[in-house]
Request: fold
Amino acid sequence: MSKPDLAIFDLDNTILNGDSDYSMVNYLVDINLLDSNAKLKNNEFIQDYQQGKLDFNEYTNFALKAYIGKTQDEISKIILPFVEKVIEPMINIFALKLIHDHHDKGDTILLASATNELIVKPIAHRLNINNVIGTQVEFKDSKCTGNFIPPSALGEGKLKLVKAWMKAHQYNNFSRVTFYSDSINDLPLLEAVDFPKAVNPDKKLEAISNERGWEVIYLPLI
Reply:
């Protein structure tokens, strides 16, 4: 019996109308776990990301700073209200329709995001997606160190982590695999799959998609 087709979804600006990592940092400032200067730095990082030149090591140290020394339970008590208050209104119902269409066809759904897993996993739970890839966060003695475990789930790192997940789940190649993303940063994985789908793409990805004849999907942002 053949395996179900695989549909991979990016999270930020694909399923969400916005960026979860960026929103999380601003939320941490609002609840006084980061100082107000973090919002300015956050804006600089998001611009670098949008241009495809983010220093991921530097950004991750910045984004995980508030969790250093905290246990998973303590972090969850910060992130779960964030998912309810901030992420819930960001979910694009038209992206949910794409997910549901794949689910109805019996496809396997995989959420693959460069955002750290502390944030991605609770969002995936809200979306009823069981298969999740995010940038892994290091814990020592049950406490967050503020570091990530390489590779990050960005660019080539996302492709590597998806390949590892596929191998573990007996997907031998990218035949009949679909990937939805908005970002030029996801170009390595988009190039690997049979069915690349650019969703509300940034300008660089839009140009490449048009050149290569990839499907471009413009979802209403409501």
Summary: The mean pLDDT is 94. Residues 60 and 147 are 7 Å apart (CA to CA).
